[in-house]
Amino acid sequence: MVETFVQSTDDVVAFLVGQHNLIKDMFDDVLHASETKAREEAFVALRQLLAVHETAEEMVVHPRARLDLDDGDAIVDLRLQEEHEAKQQLSALEDMDFGSKEFLDALAVFRDAVIDHAEREENEEFNKLQRKLDAGDLERMAAAVVAAEAIAPTRPHPGVESATLNFAVGPFASMLDRARDVISAALR
Fold first, then answer.
1. Cα torsion 60, 170, 148, 126: sign
2. Which one of 75, 122, 138, 145 has the lowest number of neighbouring Cβ atoms within 10 Å?
3. What share of the chain is helix, strand, coil (3-state, %, to 5)?
4. What is the distance between the alpha carbons of residues 19 and 69, in angstroms, rounded to a whole number?
């Protein structure tokens, strides 16, 4: 089961920013792991959190930004392109040798892209939503994000970046991903 480290669900922005900070720390865990097995385990945890986090944003936050922000479509379109590219990079990382220099170099580049993406989300999307919406809306969105993360796929699926596709494909992909995760863990 994916641990999303829920601290508070009173405000979707605080919740997601908290996850952004956790993701940054998890990158350090992967990059600084002392042995390959530890690096793989840290990477799997990071991959799972990234996958469920992005799915929830695509299902809950981005549609609301499109609806409520004056420049919502432009903001969301750029974030979805970044998310698509990140899913491709994450998929490629999954297939690499976790003990290799190539993996570490690619992970460092990926980390920088993810951090840049998170900062753009926070500055261009989250902050605007937080100013525009009332506390009740932010709390309801946080509850929706938690629910979406609970059923989200745990692996990247490039090409599935819209709320519609996540609702259509997500449950099936999630079931398969979670089964693969259990089997993979048993074989380690």
1. negative
2. 122
3. 80, 0, 20
4. 23
Residues in the chain: 188
Q: CA-CA distances (angstroms) from residue 161 to 2, 115, 123, 129, 141?
A: 20, 19, 20, 20, 18
Q: Is the pLDDT of residue 30 over 60?
A: yes
Closest CA to 68 of 123, 131, 117: 131
Collapsing DSSP to helix, strand or coil, 146 comes out as helix
What residues contact 113, with CB distance under 8 A and at least 6 apart? 82, 85, 86, 89
Q: List Cβ neighbours of 159 (8 Å cut-off, separation of 6 or more).
A: 84, 87, 165
Give the SS3 label for residue 162.
coil
Q: Which residue has the tokens 């959190």?
A: 49
* Amino acid at position 155, single letter: R
- Separation between Cα atoms, residue 17 and residue 62, nearest integer Å: 15
Residue 39's Cβ-side half-sphere holds a number of Cα atoms within 13 Å equal to 17
Continuous H helices in 3-35: 12-31
pTM: 0.85
Helix (H) or strand (E) holding 60, with range, is none
DSSP 152: S
pLDDT of 105 higher than 80: yes
